[in-house]
Amino acid sequence: xxxxxxxxxxxxxxxxxxxxxxxxxxxxxxxxxxxxxxxxxxxxxxxxxxxxxxxxxxxxxxxxxxxxxxxxxxxxxxxxxxxxxxxxxxxxxxxxxxxxxxxxxxxxxxxxxxxxxxxxxxxxxxxxxxxxxxxxxxxxxxxxxxxxxxxxxxxxxxxxxxxxxxxxxxxxxxxxxxxxxxxxxxxxxxxxxxxxxxxxxxxxxxxxxxxxxxxxxxxxxxxxxxxxxxxxxxxxxxxxxxxxxxxxxxxxxxxxxxxxxxxxxxxxxxxxxxxxxxxxxxxxxxxxxxxxxxxxxxxxxxxxxxxxxxxxxxxxxxxxxxxxxxxxxxx
Length: 331
Ligand SMILES: [Zn+2]
Known about the structure:
This protein is α/β, with parallel strands linked by helices and 331 residues long. The protein folds into two domains: 12-172, no CATH class; 207-330, no CATH class. It has 17 helices and four strands. The protein has helices at 12-29, 45-52, 59-73, 75-82, 85-88, 93-102, 104-133, 167-170, 175-195, 207-225, 231-235, 243-261, 268-275, 279-282, 289-301, 307-312, 318-330, and strands at residues 38-42, 139-144, 152-155, 162-166. It starts with 11 loop residues before the first helix and ends with a helix. Zinc ion (ZN) is lined by residues 184, 188, 215, 218.
């Protein structure tokens, strides 16, 4: 991509208009860099280039760069990651941005290194999908870096389902964790595009049951895509050790009982207890216990079926099978 980040202007409206034009140009002109199937739309490299072109920048210049990048240059991606965040969580965004921008000298090289790593993982992941499922995944992947704390988000730019990766989050993931994360996330898109109705929603309407299948299956799929690692690495690819996984094992009975008692409960708090990333929603369990339970469920179902059939099964009919299998897991 050749578009440069818009330069700072004294008036906000000018920044906004210029940013809007550059944004539109950027979205139209982003060049595929991996291959024709999983296309990379690289919104990260311009940040790296822009930083490299700065001559001993002060804190204010760095802060402006951070703002221009996230809220002007790549506004659509910024909006996607900050959606509801500012009023959901009472955090000091300005202070956080100042700290974030001040750490650019230390962060930027790690972003560049992770970018190179991911560019190698993508074709390997793609090849594994073809090998395992006989289907070619096709979707855009947006490279982006943001202070927002999510590692990736599904996008619908131009009516096309895609995936945006937050390099500022995944720069701290191990090489193994990064591979597993990509296998996991790409399976979500693959499942939505090829297994469920192509025009249908990402997740089935029942939040807890839908997430149990979506997250459990993606976790289990990541193990099939990149085999050979420990179970905890698939369940907690962001973690550096098995501490969270061991806590899941400890609370397994309690979490299973709760899930079975609330299988058809559509209250968001039930969903949050098992699938939200916020530790307060799940305490005393670790957050996202539903990922672990869904992974166990997929594994259990593969004991007397082929794991390929399990991974490729449609959501229709899932509830009945899931309940039977969860009950035997709880024994
Ligand atoms: Zn997931």
